[in-house]
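User: For my dataset I need records formatted as: sequence, then structure tokens, nothing else. Please produce one.
Assistant:
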Amino acid sequence: MRRFRTTDPDFAAAFEAFINERRDTPEDVDASVREVLTAVRRDGSMLLFASDGYSIRLS
């Protein structure tokens, strides 16, 4: 998590850089969700226990 303080000398530049960072597009998110749902339907909910806590391995 990032924190921005308006009192920091580089606030404007840091916040501008944050705003301009690439974010996942809805299409990217939709594709990822579809892949997870397909894998869970195919392999069952035990697939969720194969998670490393950050992402689900879909191999």
